[in-house]
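Please, why this fold?
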Amino acid sequence: MPVLGLTAAAEALKLFYLPGLRYQLNDAASVLLAQLEKTTENVVGSEIVLAMRYGRVGGIGNRSDTGTLPTPNSRKTKKAQWETKNIFARFQISDKTIKASKSSSGAFNSLLEKEISDCERDAKLDLSRQVLGSGTGALCTVSSVSGLNLTVNTTMYLAEGMLVDIYTNNTKDTSEAEITAVNHSTNTIQVTSATNAAQNDVIYLAGNKGLELTGLESVFTSTTLYGLNVATYPWLSPYRRNLAGEIEEVTIQAAIDEADTRAGAVTNFLLCSKGVRRAYQDLLTAQKQTVNSLDLKGGFKALSYTGGDKEIPLVADKYVKPGKMYGLDLNDWAMYRMADWEWMDSDGAMLSRVANTPAYEATLLSYCDIGCQRPKGQFEIYGITEH
């Protein structure tokens, strides 16, 4: 009977659950990810290869009736090439549980659905975090240590049950410690192990250090982007402004205008922290403006910024760091991937035996990364007073 159960489960994973999981992880995990084009173009083997265009076209100019025509000079191109990142979502079902539900297909399906639902929910949360991250995988920095109790600079990415590694620079001091308690009001956590943990150590999701998506923050903070040195190629640097105060529409418009002036970018997406969104709402209320909303792909809603020539969606994400607003030209961004989300089944089995364990497992995977073809056309306003 377990074999029949496994066969039915494998069919359900492929035909019933996979389409829904793809939607959840492509369009429902993150408001930003939902808006990005998902494409296999520019993916060669396991690498992403982009032709980064910069500068302006020569050959344009005014001459006299008998003057020499302008000298042609094409825009410059620099090849960016980097590896796709590997994302896995894995769950297990014990053999005993399968046998216990063998008399009822409904019970088996209910069990399978619960396992997949839990896996999907947590995969969405982590993917949402990575889409906005720096690619390093760093979750927080340790401020102080008292036994198994750690005070950290932020708990916004942490939750009970997470397995984390603790590093001193590039030395892993603690491996796969489980977070057993999180106090968001005091920025403290409790872990099952804190070997050699000390002030200024960095906490990562277990195994993720240096392997996460090249997320939004990477474009604004990395010294090396897509294999290119940012200092060597200034056109890789977006516009950044430290506001150190209250947000105003003229501040947003100035950044939009700067992106246009620098790179000819058309800002069509504003992304901020929840506190900054509240500050913007408060601004509209004070000005007695109507708060309009826009519908976005993935079922998300957005406020409408109307200070410029057209409406631009303004949305908040729980994983945007406090005091920040990003302005993006989404035409410059894409999720490059080898293929859509798939079950790992190259050996012909979606549910495989877990070695030395009376259990079966399934793994969902994607080989992908985020890329921006024109970093210079994006902007970040930080230091915004939150409400």
Q: What stands out?
A: The two ends are 58 Å apart (CA to CA). The chain has a mean pLDDT of 91. The chain has three domains: 2-51+79-133+338-370, 138-205, 242-335+373-384. DSSP finds seven helices and 24 strands in the chain.
